[in-house]
UniProtKB/TrEMBL annotation:
InterPro entries: SirB1_N, TPR-like_helical_dom_sf. Belongs to the UPF0162 family. The lineage of its organism: Bacteria, Pseudomonadati, Planctomycetota, Planctomycetia, Planctomycetales. It comes from the Bacteria. This is Protein SirB1 N-terminal domain-containing protein. SUPFAM superfamilies: TPR-like. Residues 52-199 form the Protein SirB1 N-terminal domain.
Amino acid sequence: MSFSFSNSACSDDEQFMRLVRRETDVDLLTAALEISRDGQSDVNFPAARGILQRAVSRLTHPVTQAGSDLEELKLLSRYMTEELGLHGESEYLADPHSHYVNQVLATGRGIPISLSLIYLHVGNELGIPLEPISTPARFLIRLPTDQGHLYVDAFDRGRILDECECIDLIGDLASCSALEVRRHLRPVDERAVVIRMLQNLKALFGGREDWSSAWKVQTRLQLLLPGSWRERRDHAVLTMRAGHYGEAIDLLERSLAVCPAEDRLFLQNHLRQARRMLPECN
């Protein structure tokens, strides 16, 4: 299903569109800042980059003098928490600002994935080969070393864990076995990181019934996952709930033509509502 970019800022988002085209070597920080524009009109890209570049400049010499991988991680975590004030709290999960990287840099308050993205950017700029790890209960970053993997929990003020400690943490948070946790301890690519960021926002805005914001997020998810029936269905429904009734009628009709039986009544109800509302908006 095609999507018209005429009313979407997505087409102006260079790094996000590179993900849509499945290109590699995407600037993940810029893609995250582009997503931040959905909820803010004045995202200052140079200011955000300036904060991170100063971090790189301040850490370059100490990191080059570090005697071990662990010491490098400790230097990075200390700067992130003490100088930038990055930290997480459970209450931040429900605050959209904690999902947007520029706001996290401004306030220090973030969720696991937004905090981890900042660690990733600075660490990789310093030559520390950090990897994004997307577990069910907590987004983490990992550093492969000759002695085994080290993990950083950016949400817990940059706490550094070995693999056993990491497995225990995720097992407790997600109520799953060590074997199940190990299946998720694999690096993910930039595309998977952005999809998880968007799914977090979708759940947040949907829970608030902020349909306009949820629709913007869903538009991006549909572009990234055009073969997903769930995202196609949700795009049609959220287009209607956001008040774009003309477009929603077209999307809902197309979805009904191919939908599984269990979704038919749900979509028919939304199509009837969109048709009823459209004349009131003309």
